[in-house]
Amino acid sequence: MKLIAGLGNPGSEYEKTRHNIGFRVVDYISQQVGIPLSKNKFKGVYGMGLVETEKLILLKPMTYMNLSGDSIKEAIHFFDVPIEQLLVIYDDLDLPVGKIRLREKGSSGGHNGLKSIISHLHSDEFKRIRIGIGKPMPGIDVADYVLSPFQKDEREQIEKAIQRAGEAAMDWIHKPFVQVMNGYNG
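User: That's the sequence. What structure does it adopt?
Assistant: Structure tokens below.
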């Protein structure tokens, strides 16, 4: 059993913001594998189903970004998912817009959603897909930037990144993460 969680903020006002890229990737995966996100539990929206022979849980925490760990911890404990079978998808200020990077584990890198997950799980040993949202221009507040929509000239790159990140996550369902990481980080 594997759990893929995309990070974001609930509510239509955040739907197309930079911070919600994780939600958008989980929505993409949901459509591709035919697992609807139709259940409300674990302080989130989730769906569960089989992808060939692998049981997969898709989760979008509805706790707001900074409390994502609360939702993920509840789902992991309820389904008894080993932490090494967790994949978290989220935005990253340190990557250029549209670039994706896969990691097996590591620190939060200053990302509040990851800080919450690491704190709740007492571990940083979970897999991640980071999606670049770029850095704000000097003088623009980081909080305002991550809660802003992508610019018109960035949207095509972001749509490609959502698809690429979704494909990487789906590849992980049946392949070792190191193999997937080597294929997508190159």
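The CA atoms of residues 137 and 145 lie 9 Å apart.
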